[in-house]
């Protein structure tokens, strides 16, 4: 099972992405973010 979350700060506009999973190193593949664009957790 994998849990993912994406959040945006309304004050600063910054994005945060986090993922938790039981499989080692899979979290690196799940989250993507780009400045001035947005963030995605697959």
From TrEMBL:
> What Pfam family is a match, any one?
DUF1028
Q: Could you tell me which InterPro entries the record lists for this protein?
A: DUF1028, Ntn_hydrolases_N
Residue intervals passing through the bilayer: none
Q: What is this protein called?
A: DUF1028 domain-containing protein
């Amino acid at each position: 099972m994998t849990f993912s979350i994406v959040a945006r700060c309304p004050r600063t506009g910054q994005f945060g992405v986090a993922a938790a999973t039981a499989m080692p190193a899979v979290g690196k593949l799940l989250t993507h973010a780009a400045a001035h664009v947005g963030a995605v957790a697959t």
